[in-house]
Design brief:
about 260 residues, alpha+beta, Dna Repair Protein Xrcc4, Chain: A, domain 1, 2 domains, 7 helices, 7 strands, about 45% helix
């Protein structure tokens, strides 16, 4: 299955600690991260079969093959920079139901620098954590209201079904729940759908508006403007999260009728 804008752990033992993401715009966009750097490359639509020598078909079928290889723990994989500073992702594995080995090869991966870390990891994950915290708080509000409603219903002398007559919620039990012992890459993959929504809401493409406005070669001033714009955007994100959280969490009602 092809997933868009969601990080997936590369299951090959040769690339432990690496994750892969696919997106699409005017071109096919591919990303790789070791959680220290984010790398990206692009492939024009219609020529995706060139990344898998020996395979023919439409882009959709090639993407299915690529995702199969990403999820194959027995695949042989590498992510290396031969010379120019650009990286090459190469994964070889058998085609399902066949003994034939196919190699998927993506070239020209570039390090996106601090901007890539900000827009593809830090900003969406901070936003996602804030949303999750707001939802947790609201959920506890709703559970408390439910417990209050049951208590008042019982106090009135009415009988209620056993399935509704639950024990009052204990927040300490929730807080003491053990966190699964998983790697950061696995955690990033499990947060997929919520991460994707956060990315779509918060990802702002500033490359064209900042890079193209500066004369060629003036990279220092461009980088400074880019970082300033990123900082400003992050402040806007946190402000919007705080405002939305206050709207989502109304004051607890004193009495609830059912």
């Amino acid at each position: 299955m092809v997933l868009i804008d969601q990080w997936l752990q590369i299951k090959s033992k040769d690339l432990q600690g690496f994750s892969f993401k696919y997106s699409i715009d005017e071109k096919h966009l591919f990303f790789v991260t070791d959680l220290k750097c984010v790398y990206s490359t692009a492939v024009r639509k219609g020529i995706l079969s060139s990344t898998c020598a020996g395979l023919e078909g439409c882009d959709d079928s090639i993407l299915e093959t690529i995702f199969d290889k990403i999820a194959d723990p027995n695949a042989k994989a590498s992510f290396k920079s031969p010379s120019s500073g650009q990286f090459i992702l190469e994964i070889s594995s058998r085609i399902r139901g066949s003994v034939e080995i196919i190699t998927f090869r993506l070239e020209h991966f570039n390090n996106l620098g601090v901007e890539g870390i900000h827009y593809h990891l830090v900003a969406p994950l901070i936003h996602m954590q804030a949303v999750a915290a707001a939802r947790e708080e609201r959920l506890m509000e709703m559970i408390a209201e439910k417990d209050l409603a049951i208590a008042e219903f019982k106090a009135s002398g009415a009988s209620i079904l056993a399935s509704i007559n639950t024990k009052p919620f204990n927040e300490e039990q929730l807080q003491s729940t053990r966190v699964p012992n998983i790697t950061l890459n696995e955690a990033l993959e499990q947060s997929g759908p919520l991460y994707s929504k956060s990315l779509k809401r918060q990802f702002v493409k500033l490359e064209n508006s900042t890079v193209n406005s500066e004369p060629e070669g003036d990279t220092r001033r461009t980088r400074k403007r880019y970082d300033e714009a990123a900082a400003q955007k992050q402040e806007q994100i946190m402000t919007s999260v705080a405002e939305s959280s206050s709207k989502v969490l109304p004051k607890r009602k004193q009495r609830v009728r059912i």
